[in-house]
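Lab notebook page, bench 4
Experiment: in silico fold of construct C2
Operator: M.H.
Input chain length: 114 residues
Purpose: comparison with the prior construct
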Amino acid sequence: MHISTTVLDTLIRPRLLIVSARYALRDYNRAHRLARLLGLPMARSLPTPHVALSQLLERERALEHARRTHDASWSASEHVAVMTALLHEALLDMHSPTAPALPCPDAISPAISA
């Protein structure tokens, strides 16, 4: 089982966040957006969807914590951008026959949305 089917199925986020991310999938350009979201240097090649998915999950967890604690540094547009990339990488990972299965990270637990 891929990480995308085990972890993403347990995430509970506000409906508006998910709907916005799904809508943004239409215009998502992996080559243009992923490096910026992961903070990669310009000359570095992009990671595989499997690796990118793990890194994006960590970033999304931090954004979700900031959202829940009403941290002033939380950005709705950044959260939507990360969720869009997360959904895109999950789709790529699910359709990749060579991607190994990752165990579900313990740090990500389902949370009840406010």
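Observations: Residues 3-94 form one domain. Confidence is low (pLDDT under 50) at residues 101-114.
Next step: discuss at group meeting.
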